[in-house]
Amino acid sequence: MTKAGILLAVSSLPSKTGVGDFGPACYQFIDDLKACGMQCWQFLPLNPLGYGNSPYQPYSSFAIDDLYLSLDSLKAEGLIAGFKEYNAQADRVDYAAVRAFKEPYIYEAYQNFEPDDGYREFIKNAWVHNYAVFKALKKHNDDKLWIDWPSKQKNWIKNHEFDLEPFKEDIRLEMFAQYKLYQQWMSVKAYANNQGIQCIGDIPIYVGLDSEDVWSHQDSFLLDDDGRPLFIAGVPPDYFSKTGQRWGNPIYDWDYLKAHDFKFWEKRIAYNLSLFDIVRIDHFRAFDTYWKIPADCPTAVVGEWIEAPGYELFDHLLKTLPNFHIIAEDLGDLRKEVLILRDLLPGTKRFGELKKSIGSVSQKVLTAQLRDMEKSGLLIRTVYAEVPPRVEYSLTELGKSLKPVLDAMQNWGEGYQSSMV
Predict the structure, then answer these.
(1) Whole-angstrom Cα distance, residue 265 to residue 83?
(2) Widest Cα–Cα separation across the chain
(3) 341 with 288: CB under 8 angstroms?
(4) How many helices (H) and strands (E) does the chain have?
(5) pLDDT (tens digit, 9 = 90+) per residue, 233-291?
């Protein structure tokens, strides 16, 4: 089924406080979407803006930027007495100024807040406390990157030896802010869903070096002993840029991730799927091949294409995440293998077409059956790198009794003999 929607950043909504947030304008926009016959709202990443106020260099893949905390909602809860309007007619967001404006009100709300059962349950998420500590120590160190903190603070995440008592107020304040952001967003999402609107979240494939993600999961990235990247992400020279794009994000240690069941990615996708109906992944092509740039190279000219374990990753995610539903960003000059990987994922255009043709047969059941049959020695699989991709299965002696199942899949259409790989 084809659906229509609109891409609008939350920060671009009308606001009385200089930046769009999870307040009244959010609900009004949802009403407007419904009135126009829309079914989807897509927005940019909600994570805390990092370097250059970029949503693609976030301080966390899990936290939400406190810019989006609605003062109207805090007032309605009785957590703040009121607030003045600020930059209500601004056509651009002055991020630093808006943060400075909102901070006193967030602190006032924190002081008036009594922890409830919802809060106590929310802070059981490991990332919540780690992120709060990260932000508290970053603030104490004049916003420096964590790799430049004093060694005891830098290594707290590994050994928990540094005494956090002097920072407990800042830590609790940050956990409170994240709890209210979570509450406010989930209220917006519930309202949208009740109006027939799906919320499409957005996450970058890479995370920022200056983030709780890298600080807490250093083994998952290619870093030196001091925590500095050995290699960084980007794209090579093309018709847009003679020197390519040097993004600066650390590269994943895919060998480590694979050996540890892709836990970082599993947790990251799972949490985002709990926040959004659908998740768009930016720069999806890097799950097939990614441009690996030496960290000491000032441009993206020097580098090499490296194959990523995309099939293994998505095999794992499909098994562990029952509500797996993503959009694969596929812009740019891509090799055909990227499109093959994209089209083998549920929820993409190709899978949507296939699902219509297989009727009542469950897509996930078929996927699981074929994988189990292959692993058990019942099938031999051959993949032909064509567009659309063609996958042939040959029965072993043990598998001949299951031939009727495979025959039922021969006519899925558009060049597919089977897409379940």
Answers:
(1) 40
(2) 77
(3) yes
(4) 16, 11
(5) 999 998 888 999 999 999 999 999 999 999 999 999 999 999 999 999 888 888 889 99
The residue to which tokens 């671009």 are assigned? 12
Please check whether residue 205 is in contact with residue 286, taking contact to mean a CB–CB distance below 8 angstroms.
yes
pTM value is: 0.81
Nearby residues of 151 by Cβ (< 8 Å), 6 or more positions away:
none
Q: What torsion do the CA atoms of 211, 216, 220, 226 make, to the nearest 10 degrees?
A: 80
Bond preceding residue 24 cis, omega within 30 of 0: no
**Calpha distance 210→15 (Å, rounded):** 29
pLDDT score recorded for residue 387:
45
Per-residue pLDDT at 391: 59
Q: Which two tokens stand for residue 165?
A: 């008592």
In terms of residues, how long is the chain?
Answer: 421
Q: Please, which residues bridge with residue 42 across strands?
A: 7, 200
- Give the Cβ contact number of residue 142 at 10 Å: 7
User: Residue 305: in which H helix or E strand, if any?
Assistant: strand 304-307
pLDDT (tens digit per residue) in 60-114: 999 999 999 999 999 999 999 999 999 888 889 999 999 999 999 999 999 999 9
Secondary structure class of 295 (helix, strand, coil): coil
Extract the tokens encoding 294.
């030496």
Cα–Cα distance for residue pair 303/292, rounded to 1 Å: 5
What's residue 88's pLDDT?
87
Gap between the Cα atoms of 250 and 156, Å rounded: 21
Helix (H) / strand (E) containing 156: helix 156-159
Instruction: With a cut of 70, say whether residue 389 has pLDDT above it.
Output: no
Report helix angle 336-343 to 349-357, nearest 10: 50
CB 110 within 8 A of CB 80: no
Evaluate whether 419 touches 407 at the Cβ level (below 8 Å): no
| Rg of the chain in Å (alpha carbons) | 24
If you search the block for the tokens 């790198």, which residue do you land on? 385
Helix (H) or strand (E) holding 270: helix 263-275
DSSP assignment letter at 287: G
Question: What pLDDT, on a 0 to 100 scale, did the predictor assign at position 179?
Answer: 98
DSSP characters over 58-80: -S-SS---GGG--HHHHHHTTSS
Q: Among residues of the chain, what percentage have pLDDT more than 90?
A: 67
How far the first Cα of the chain sits from its last, in Å, is 24
